[in-house]
Hints:
The structure holds two protein chains of two kinds.
Chain A: H1 2-18, H2 28-50, E1 51-52, E2 55-56, H3 59-66, H4 68-101, H5 105-113, H6 120-134, H7 140-165, H8 168-176, H9 181-210, H10 213-218, H11 226-235, H12 239-264, H13 267-270
Antiparallel strand pairs in A: 1-2
Chain B: H1 2-28, E1 34-40, H2 46-56, E2 59-65, H3 68-77, E3 85-86, H4 90-98, H5 118-127, E4 142-154, H6 160-166, E5 184-187, H7 190-203, H8 209-212, H9 216-219, H10 225-239, E6 242-246, H11 250-255, E7 261-265, H12 266-275, E8 279-282, E9 288-295, H13 304-314, H14 317-327, E10 330-331, H15 335-340, H16 342-350, H17 355-360, E11 373-374, H18 382-392, H19 402-436
Parallel strand pairs in B: 1-2, 1-3, 5-6, 5-7, 9-11
Antiparallel strand pairs in B: 4-7, 4-8, 4-9, 4-10
Helix pairs in contact in B: 7-10, 10-18, 14-16
Amino acid sequence: MGTQIKNIGIKISNKIKNFRITRSVFAYPYVLFLMLFVIMPLIILLINAFMVNDELSLKNFSDFMTDGSNVQTLTFSLLIGLITTALCILIGYPIAYILSKWSSGRVIVLLFILPMWVNFLIRTLSTRFMFDAIGIKLGVETLIFGLVYNYIPFMILPLHTTLSNIDKSYTEAASDLGANHLSTFFKVTFPLSIPGILSGVTMVFIPTISTFAISQFLGGTSSYLFGDSIERKFMHQLYGVGSVMSIIMLAFVLIANYFMRKSNKGEASRNLW
Amino acid sequence: MKRILASVFLIALTFGLLMGINIPLTASAADKPVLTIYNWADYIDLEVIDEFEEANNVDVVYSTFDTNEQMLGTINIDTSSAIDLICPSDYAIERMLANDMIFEIDISQITNYTNVNSSIMDKIDEEFGDLASNKKMSDYFVPYFYGTVGILYNTKYVEKSVAEEAGYGLLWNTPNISALNGKILMKDSVREAYLAGLLYLKETNRLPEKYEAMLISELINTINDELLGLVETEFKEQKKILSEYEVDTGKNYMVEESSYVELAWSGDALFAMEENEDLDFFVPSVGGNIWFDGWVIPKTSNNKDLAMKFIDFLLRPDIAMRNSMEVGYTSAVKEESIRASADAIAIIEDGGFDLDEFFDDETRYPDLENTSLVLMRDFDETKLVTMWERVKAPDSVTSQNLIIYYILIPIGAVILIGLVVFLILKNKKQRKVVESE
């Protein structure tokens, strides 16, 4: 009996002695975090989506597809997402460009980034009051304004990083070889900044579709986004359909990511910001 | 092998952690009794809880919810938590009772029970009388606050007589007052919306014949495809003149006059009317919803006696008035008991109210005997939610967002197509370079 305990004791102490702090040990906390807060929720989502009354079924999917309003809301959200992203590029690119060229651009960018430090709910609510004060009716237009206003920093920052990382000797070489400003921009600077645009697009497009607070404050009666719909489903304990919708969102994220990678060949991953 | 071991270790750790989270909760119960309360947000004077803790030498764990659905979801998922007291609304209590989730309350242990306004209990038992298994609803909860759903409007833009004649129609702007267009707020809550929609149809005599003879209490508790379809058309019509859908923000918009008409809860209306004197509130004469929130003891409770003690504490007239002043809704403690307590009277007068005015205010103290004020029962909300989503879903192309569709979409499309083409060209060029090398 005594020797047995002794043996076990030796075994345990050996285990402890053999436990070495390798590099992978430092990853455990992160892995644990990911398991708990990313993998587990995803599994729960899948279970909710495919289980109806404890039975495997596709009823939630058919419920989603047959109810016209869901598809209508999804297409509307995608459209809003596209418009917002396009506007963010149109407005954000020149700003990022100016910033990377002129030192005075810093002030402009500061003004754009400044609202980011205010909580976004407060920001959105005050935007609403400003519209009220000016007398603008809430609707799709104000919603898009709110979305662009909220997400444009996510477009400017990666663009700024990419643009200011472009080696100046490229543009110098181009002008030495006879290119004017316009063709330098279109043949050298713009192509080199595409990774920045792409990572900006991923950071604007997907959050736009799934946003819900902004559309509730600024959308008036004419807008209802996919995120709002998901929120309502979960609020009324319709977890099945809600999960299906979340999975559809997730599919969009994955598809977007795939295309970004493909067109970028890994450049974007270097360039998250 | 190493990987498998690592993952097993991780999973074990995860479970260990999860269990670890529960340990402190039960462990701390050993030294001081713990009372876990789950209440609506902003629905109690928090100092009352401190006072209870001190008086009884206990710890109170207090958490809040925003909707009945959220609360039900939480207790369905987290069955291990030892919640001792919950404050759901009438229909949620009905659902919990049907699922056998709550204890019967032993009234004899609550000394202040005589303070409860008995007409509330009568009303509830009358309307919830046909529960399965012959349970009496009033045996399972102690009422806390109550109120009505009605219409809050700005008298600067709508005259009182016009508003009261229009009833629920005011939400559809039936008096045709041009100032109201785009200034009407609708509750983004399926139950309240359905109620308003049905009673609007009833008011304007547009219900199919078989529903016309129904009592209001039957009508608002009937839910079927025919009625849903009718209501849906009305809501789609209403959408054109609405300012927006809201739940909590509306009362503020009413106060600052960015909107003029709102479907409102009486407590919110009282708040708004105090802030802005031009506002007025009424429950349309055709009828309306009266609701109750009450305390129930869920079967997960392991401290029933303490829970009873807390309910008893809340029924003390002065405590009830302190909560009522803080929250703004109507306490379920009856008028006579409050008038009999000098402390309670002092609290009302401190709040800036005249005692008689306080009790005579019809918004605060609706007539419980009024048979047109009815309770809304629990029902399956799935169809209601899908109907409401169809109403809210954006219309594809309407004249007001034409600009967006015809200008911005092409811009977006051109940019995206341009990007794609550019990328393809870029790739091709690179390939050519590689090939030529």
